[in-house]
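Researcher: Structure for this, please.
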Amino acid sequence: MSPEEDFGTSLENAERWMRMILERLQASDNVQGPKAALENRLKETEEILAEEPEGRLRLDTVLVKAESLLQDSSDDKKQEIHTALKHIKTMWEDTQVNMVHCHSRIEWVLLHWSEYLKAREDYFFWLLNIKRKLDFDLESQLGLKEKKLQLSHHTILLTNILNQAALLERLVQELGSLFAKTKDETLNEEAEQKLKAEHEALEIKAKKKVRVLEAIVQEHQQYTDNREKFQSWLHSMKEKYNDCNVHKDNKDHVEGLLRELRELNDTVSSKEGELDNLQAQAKTVINNTSPMGAERIARDLEELRRDWDNLRLKCQQDQGPLELGLRSMLDYRSRAEQLEREVTELQDRLQSLDLQPLDETDLETAWHKCLMARSSILAEEPRVEELQLKLKELCRFSQNEELLSVKVLNAIREYKRVKGKIVKKCSQLAVRLRCSSQELLQEFQQWRSSTRNLLHLSLDTKDGMLISTYLQHIENHLARSNQLEVQLDRFQGLEGVLCSIYGKEQTATLESELRDAVQQREFLTDSLFQRRRELQVNDQDPTDHKLLLKKFEDWLKTEDLKLTNILTAKSPRSSRERKSRKQGLKVLHSHVPHGQKIFEALISAEFSSMNEEEKQLEDLRYRWILYKTKLREAGQLLLQGQNEVNEFRKQTSGGICHYLSRACCAALPLQLLLLLLLLLAFLLPLIEEQDSCSVVNNFARSFYLTLRYQGPPPT
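Model: Predicted structure, token format:
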């Protein structure tokens, strides 16, 4: 056989072997189906990978045959041989890549599947453990402390269940991901729903137990608090009774002791309902308590009721002797006490009726307060006369009423003083209201007259008056109009007050005058506003606006030039240069509010026939926005550069030379560019087919999150 035939035969054998391998790979390149099928395909790809040396041997044979043939071939023949070699090498590289990718793809899915099954097994182990703990019925506890511990234990179980929700969610996500890849029916949506349903059922059961235990603890805690509160109250009542018992033989304190015993007895007796409620609470608590704990609750409550009964019985028994000794005294003293109480009530009433300083700026409220006070003080006059009669009758039986007599006389004098004060204040307010209404109408008439005179001046001459002076007069009249409006509104709201002072006829006349004044004031005020607008339009000067435009334009040019000088300067190398650049930008930032004020003044100015100025203002608006944007971006860029320098200093040691530091800073833009290209390379595979064998094991997919796999990707 000639060398040329020998080369052709080896080339044909190599190509036939590679096509056979590709056909086998194509038959195995599939991740769908059950786990056993994927494992069989993985074994097939492993066998294919094991045949790689044979393929390399066939390729080497072709290369050796080609080398010997090239020595004696013509140039055209050599070109043909080189083309065949290039084709067989490319085919071999494609075969190798497909072998590795196909094997890695199946291996990666199986690894994902195995890790999911492991995590699912751990989850079900945890689930069974929690189920066993929750399956036990709740046991009755001895006391509140034990019930709180039981609640704490079940709360921890519930928290554990809630915390496992995140793991369950990841399991469901991984289940969906595996189903999307493998289409295996054991991983379908029904399996997801089963996982969620079991977890939700466990969570509901735990929450139910926690709610039951919370109610039990709250119920027992409320009972304990109420019992301790009642016990503390009972102890304080015992101390009060002991204090009364110490002074029971003192005749000077018989009345006070009897009163205290009655109050104590009433207080103790009023607590019977509370004690009954406490017993009812105890029955409910006992139902959720162990037998020993229930016996303790019943014993404590029985002792508490016994102490309460003993105290109530003692209070009732001690009242009898004291009541016999007081019965003879009370008949005489009752009327004196009644009189003293009435005097005290009258004094309290007079103190409340005593007219306090009034806010006379609100005439209506002040007048109504005076009328109410006068009506109330006159209503007390029969009571004062009755007190005088009772005092005379009481003095017939005893002359030892000097202190009470002084109190009654003082109360009568206080009544007369308060009555005189109220009547006097009512008269003063009536006079003031009459005077105020007349003064207001006179003041309005003066303003109306002067306003009409001002409006009658000619717009052409102003009687020789300057426009600015005329405008100032208008402003003064408008300010006066506002004051009159407030006062007129106030008097219009005093209809009831004026009627009580003047009577219906005079009040109607005054109200008519007030309404006329209000209407005339509104008409004249509108005329003043119209005259002011006419004068302001005729008095505008466009020169000021042009000067303001020029001023802002010059200022903006100066600031923009400063910013340009900072940005076009060489990159700062030393910390002093960076600090100087930062300070310059800070100064420019501080000037922005000043420029904004000038610009807002330009925007708010209103002028007619200023097309040129409007175009100039629009141009300045654009330049102003552009300048602020450049200034803001310059500050952000400076901050970013400073952060990069600081990070670089942290990563480099102090022994690196200054030249290397400068080289790293100069290479920073190139590094950023390379990082951007790397990011693009990372994102490009995401747009290709999801299940392509050529992209499953690329750099981007190596970041895919798995459950437990800690090593590098299989490729």
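Researcher: Any notable elements?
Model: The longest helix spans residues 291-353. The chain is about 85% helix and 0% strand.
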